[in-house]
Specification:
By secondary structure, the chain is of the alpha+beta class. Helix content is 30%, strand content 14%. A 5-stranded antiparallel β-sheet has the order 6-5-4-3-7, covered by helices on one side. A two-stranded antiparallel ribbon has the order 1-2.
Length: 204
């Protein structure tokens, strides 16, 4: 007499399947997250290139001077009012989740723009393109900020809550190119090639 057997997973087979799914998830999820962060770094670099274009368009109409101010709030408003940079989204890195006063976000209007909430970058103020003694390809103009930045020409150590973590920073240089720096270069050596640092100031 033939008996129909119903197919079913045994407990051991079920555990093996669960283990395989767990292993695949452990491999694929970190890789996917790394891919997302790489895309965000690229978007951040494009933001800085856009900011650089606006700044370099500003200089010829202001005797070679780049905009100056006590904070990036003032500078962003000057660039916006002059029509050089009206896309407020360029000031915000998509990896920037936290700022000094809370959650970082994109400003919806220039009147509400506040660099402590709507800006992910640090700006080096004081350049004049016609009179600078700096080498443009080595002179930083803007970069990913540190949430502990306190102005002056000091770059505090990056932390895990900063734009791209504690060891990665996008830097816009005076010639308009953007480079991704890692490790010690991301903090300790960004300003090392400046010839006249006393003429400049980091503002955020």
């Amino acid at each position: 007499m033939n008996r129909n057997r119903t197919s079913a997973f045994t407990l051991i087979e079920l555990l093996v399947v669960i283990a395989i799914i767990g292993i695949l998830a452990g491999i694929l999820i970190p890789a996917a997250l790394r891919g997302v962060e790489m895309a965000r770094r690229s978007s951040c670099a494009n933001n800085l290139k856009g900011i650089g274009t606006a700044l370099l368009n500003y200089a010829p109409e202001h005797r070679g001077n780049l905009p100056a101010g006590d904070s990036l709030t003032d500078i962003a408003k000057e660039l916006h009012d002059g029509g050089y940079l009206t896309d407020l989204g360029l000031w915000h890195c998509s990896s920037d989740k936290k700022d000094d006063s809370g959650t970082a976000a994109i400003a919806t209007a220039i009147d509400e723009f506040d660099s402590s909430r709507h800006c992910s970058y640090l700006y080096v103020s004081g350049y004049n393109l016609l009179a600078t003694g700096e080498i443009p390809a080595q002179a930083p103009l803007a970069m990913d900020e540190s949430n502990r930045s306190d102005g002056g020409m000091n770059l505090p150590a990056l932390e895990k809550d900063d734009n791209h973590g504690d060891s990665v920073r996008n830097v816009l240089y005076l010639d308009g190119h953007v480079a991704l720096l890692k490790g010690d270069d991301a903090v300790n050596h960004v300003l090392d090639n400046l010839k006249e640092p006393e003429k400049l100031e980091c503002v955020d």
